[in-house]
Write a structure and sequence with these properties.
217 residues, alpha/beta, five-stranded parallel β-sheet, 5 strands, binds thymidine-5'-phosphate
């Protein structure tokens, strides 16, 4: 089973992925937590190119292909082997992020992005996606506090330097995807405090797991 977490900058994915994994582990499932970009050693090198704020000159199509390259490496060496071994893979961002950031927000053709995904990744999609939704004003405020407090975040701030309108398009893109695939997405109100967001996540996961494993295991 392949579960992904998506959301704009500052939506709290890093905190909430822990809630998610705790819940699934308590339900008896063997989980592997990973992320894109950067879920492999080669992917980590791609990640630093993609998120370096000095790389403003990166062409949109080159940016998109680097995300795809990271994904191919990640799927082949981490995700597919773990799924074959019967694990639940929980991934911080996946292909929806490419459609939203490079498609809806940067303006690349979404049909082309979908075609490339089918070619490079065999069209592999998650079974379930949690979308942590909140207004970009709040998310960016949180993200910039982190960047000011910590050098590691400052080295990865290329997307945070984008205008508010860019982040609004990201949010609207995610909500559009969720409307198109309501059976795959659960939309979580991430403007609330971390505990309240965690409660929503465990509630939707409980429903999902029950539907997936009706006999309780
Ligand atoms: P994060 O790992 O801290 O969420 O940062 C990853 C950044 O990369 C975030 O700004 C979203 C962006 N991104 C894309 O633009 N396209 C993608 O396909 C993925 C996976 C992430």
């Amino acid at each position: 089973m392949f579960i992904t977490l998506e959301g704009i900058e500052g939506s709290g994915k890093t905190t909430q992925i822990q809630t998610l994994v705790r819940f699934l582990t308590a339900a008896g499932l063997d989980c592997l937590t990973t992320r894109e970009p950067g879920g492999t050693p080669i992917g980590s090198q791609i990640r630093s190119v993609l998120l370096n704020p000095d790389n403003g000159a990166l062409a949109p199509t080159a940016e998109m292909l680097l995300y795809m390259a990271d994904r191919v490496q990640h799927l082949e060496t981490v995700v597919r082997p773990a799924l074959s071994a019967g694990k639940v893979v929980v991934c911080d961002r996946y292909f929806d992020a490419t459609l939203v950031y490079q498609g809806y927000a940067r303006g690349l053709d979404r049909d082309m992005i979908n075609r490339l995904h089918r070619l490079a990744c065999n069209g592999m999609m998650p079974d379930f996606t949690l979308l942590l939704d909140l207004p970009p004003e709040i998310g960016l405020d949180r993200a910039w506090s982190r960047i000011h407090a910590d050098d590691a975040h400052a080295r990865e701030s290329r997307f945070e330097t984008e205008a508010l309108a860019f982040h609004q398009r990201v949010r609207d893109g995610y909500l559009d995807l969720a409307r198109r695939e309501p059976q795959r997405f659960a939309v979580i109100d991430a403007a609330l405090d971390a505990a309240a967001v965690g409660e929503q996540i465990t509630a939707v996961l409980a429903t999902f797991i029950k539907a997936r494993f009706p006999s309780g295991g």
